UniProtKB/TrEMBL annotation:
Record carries keyword Glycoprotein: yes
Name used for this protein in its record: L-ascorbate oxidase
Lineage per the UniProt record: Eukaryota, Viridiplantae, Streptophyta, Embryophyta, Tracheophyta
Alphabetically ordered keywords of this record: Glycoprotein, Signal
Domain Plastocyanin-like: 38-152, 165-302, 382-519
Coiled coil: none
Pfam family, any one: Cu-oxidase_2
Species name: Populus alba x Populus x berolinensis
Length: 547
């Protein structure tokens, strides 16, 4: 069967699934939004050099996802590449539904020429996020896009509606194709220094944001890069921070913001300057060589183009960044996705049930560069872990295959899975003995960033915790030779990826899976396996469940 026939057949299958969903909807259900995506290769020139990019419906970056709290999203993805493909949803919690998380530990890849339809709900969430391709080094070729979850109309938002809403996807970029970068890592080496920075898929001054003088606009900024933190600033303009990964923040004003790998922020910017064009600047942080790129803030009544040179920003100053991170606070009186104020959840008064200390390292194993957590460098199993768990397939993984704290022992390869009890309340301490910034993400959850500081964490460090109004988020940085502590409710049953957002480190083992388990085996705690779930590895040939 030729590719076009494959595509038409799979689109028919997707249409039938959509019809089934519509027929089963009742008047009381939350709205459904349908997307059909065709994933292809295409020529892109983001840094002036021809590259093989990954496009979604011919676009790089991919289409923006617009949604409202509790919407059901039906996203049919057809893989027209010549290799397997998966999409994951950075920050979307997939409540009770790790089946839709789109990482290899939970999902079989979509084979070339085949289709998979994600059925997910943005349950009890608001905010700014992004999606990305999760296999191999596909992220280095594109395939990412913005993901916005707006508040329901009945929920008050703690600022006036802006005159416009801009998605700003920035990050480092390599001129080498993703397959070449993967070969470098597979060969036992680390990636070279990036070749440049992109803003919405384009190089310097390749993107313009048009505003009307006197009006206020929302910028949703995400670091979608592979290896470096960035700093974001707008020439001559202040930024009012209003949201951090789904949490309404205390509305502090900043001249610039550090945004670490995988993180997302929303700021309000008022066009209150003279009618000219201004630089929007992104530059790398904590790098010996500073990369800079720009886009343009264009006043619609502009009397002239940008002048001068882009303003400089912070470079290697860790203390400055640490103080800014500590200034991020939760708006206690604002409503989140529900009408109750964010401050009504007293996270600091809940007794923790467990302390987990996670220490990153960069060992050489079998003569090759690897990365590890508590001396364990993750290797993927032949069968996705969630499927092995569901079907009780032995020999795929073992619970407790990663220790709860650093061992100081030699590093080794392992398919590492940590057990966790549903409704527990964990203190997680990320410890970074290395001389570079780490960025950690936990799928399926948000956590409260209660403390961060230099040096070695100890129980006495708890005396400095913010137990009243710290920010909650899903991705957090750990500064060089420092620690970051979070409190996290274990309130989402499933198999969840805990990973470095530095994609080379993630690929070479700085990740593991957290199995949050409920013995109830109830739909109230976790949805059943989807009827359309792809089955592979040792689960191939088994049945999901009747429609």
């Amino acid at each position: 069967m030729v590719m076009g026939e494959h595509y038409r057949k799979n689109m028919r299958d997707s249409f039938m699934l959509a019809v089934l969903l519509l027929v089963t909807c009742t008047a009381g259900e939350d709205p459904y939004r349908f997307h059909t995506w065709n994933v292809t290769y295409g020529d892109i020139y983001p840094l002036g050099v021809k590259q093989q990019g990954i496009l979604i419906n011919g676009q790089f970056p991919g289409p923006q996802i617009e949604s409202v709290t509790n919407d059901n999203l039906i996203i049919s993805v057809f893989n027209s590449l010549d290799e397997p493909f998966l999409i994951s949803w950075n920050g979307v919690q997939q409540r009770r539904n790790s089946w839709q998380d789109g990482v290899y530990g939970t999902n079989c890849p979509i084979p070339p020429g085949k289709n998979f339809t994600y059925v997910l709900q943005v349950k009890d969430q608001i905010g700014s996020y992004f999606y990305f391709p999760s296999l191999g080094m596909h992220k280095a070729a594109g395939g990412f896009g913005g993901f916005k979850i707006a508040s329901r109309s009945v929920i008050p938002v703690p600022f006036p509606p802006p005159s416009g809403d801009f998605t700003f996807l920035a990050g480092d970029w390599f001129k080498k194709n993703h397959s070449d970068l993967k070969a470098i890592l597979d060969g036992g080496s680390d990636l070279p220094f990036p070749d440049g920075l992109l803003i919405n898929g384009r190089g310097s001054n390749g993107y313009t944001f048009t505003v009307d003088q006197g009006k206020t606009y929302r910028f949703r900024i995400s670091n979608v890069g592979l290896t470096t933190s960035i700093n974001f600033r707008i020439q001559g303009h202040k930024m009012l921070l209003v949201e951090v990964e789904g949490t309404h923040s205390l509305q502090n004003t900043y001249d610039s913001l550090d945004i670490h790998l995988g993180q997302s922020y929303s700021v309000l910017v008022t066009a209150d300057q003279a009618a000219h064009d201004y630089f929007i600047v992104v530059s790398t942080r904590f790098t010996s060589q500073v990369l800079t790129t720009t886009s343009i803030l264009h006043y619609s009544n502009s009397a002239g183009s940008v002048s001068d040179t882009p303003l400089g920003g912070p470079t290697i100053q860790t203390d400055w960044s640490l103080e800014q991170a500590r200034s991020l606070r939760r708006n206690l009186s604002a409503s989140g996705p529900r009408p109750n104020p964010q401050g009504s959840y007293h996270y600091g008064l809940i007794n923790t049930t467990r302390t987990v200390r996670l220490q990153n390292s960069a060992p050489i194993i079998n003569g090759k560069q690897r990365y590890a957590v508590n001396s364990v460098s993750f290797i993927s199993a032949y069968t996705p872990l969630k499927l092995a768990d569901h079907y009780n397939i032995p020999g795929v993984f073992s619970l407790g295959s990663i220790p709860d704290s650093p061992t100081g022992g030699g590093a080794y390869l392992q398919t590492s899975v940590m057990a966790a009890d549903f409704r527990g309340y964990a203190e997680i301490v990320f410890e970074n003995p290395e001389d570079n910034v780490q960025s950690w993400h936990i799928d399926g959850h948000t956590f409260f960033v209660v403390g961060m500081d230099g040096g070695q964490w100890s129980p006495a460090s708890r005396l400095s915790y913010n137990l009243r109004d710290t920010i909650s988020r899903c991705t957090v940085q750990v500064y060089p030779e420092s620690w970051t502590a979070v409190y996290m409710p274990l309130d989402n049953v499933g198999m969840w990826n805990v990973r470095s957002e530095n994609w080379a480190r993630q690929y070479l083992g700085q990740q593991f899976y957290l199995r949050v388990y409920s013995p109830a085996n109830s739909w109230r705690d976790e949805y059943p396996i989807p009827t359309n779930a792809l089955l592979c590895g040792r689960a191939a040939g088994l049945r999901t469940r009747p429609v």
